[in-house]
Specification:
The chain is mainly alpha-helical. About 85% of the residues lie in helices and about 0% in strands. The chain is built from six helices and no strands.
Length: about 140
C-alpha cells in the first residue's frame, strides 16, 4: 500500500511538472510570436533590453503558474489557471504597448530602461496574479 502511494505521488509530480513545462513552452511560443521584436535573436546578439523584457515576462508567468500548481484542486484546475496566467501576461504586454507606443522599437534598439520597464510590469502583474490564485 505504501509503495502504491509513493508511485502515485511520482506520477502526480511528473504530470504537474510536465504540464508546467508544456505551459511554459506554450507561453514562450505565443509571447514571442505576438511581440513585434524577435527576442531570442536580440538576446543572442547581446540585447540586454530584450533579455530584461522576456525574463520579466517569463518570471511574471511562472509565479502564477506555480501558485496554480500549489493551490489547484486537480490537474485540470491547474491547467485552466495556468492558462489564465498566460492570458494575463499577454494582456499586460498589449496594455503597455498601447501606453508606451515605442516600447517594442526601444527594446529592439537595446534601450535597457524600456526592457526593464516591460519586465518589471510583467513581473508585478505576475505577482498580483499569483496572489489572487490563493483560493
Amino acid at each position: 500500500m505504501e509503495l502504491e502511494a509513493e508511485l502515485q505521488g511520482v506520477i502526480n509530480f511528473l504530470s504537474y511538472f510536465g504540464a508546467g513545462i508544456a505551459l511554459t513552452v506554450l507561453f514562450l511560443l505565443i509571447y514571442t510570436a505576438i511581440t513585434p521584436q524577435k527576442e531570442f535573436t536580440l538576446i543572442r546578439e547581446g540585447n540586454t533590453a530584450a533579455a530584461c523584457s522576456l525574463g520579466g515576462a517569463l518570471i511574471g508567468f511562472m509565479l502564477p503558474l506555480c501558485s496554480a500548481i500549489i493551490h489547484s484542486v486537480n490537474f485540470v484546475d491547474m491547467v485552466i489557471w495556468g492558462g489564465v496566467a498566460l492570458v494575463v501576461q499577454l494582456i499586460v504586454f498589449f496594455i503597455l504597448r498601447i501606453i508606451f507606443r515605442g516600447l517594442p522599437a526601444g527594446i529592439e534598439k537595446g534601450i535597457v530602461s524600456e526592457g526593464i520597464l516591460l519586465g518589471v510590469f510583467s513581473l508585478a502583474a505576475g505577482i498580483l496574479n499569483a496572489a489572487c490564485m490563493t483560493y
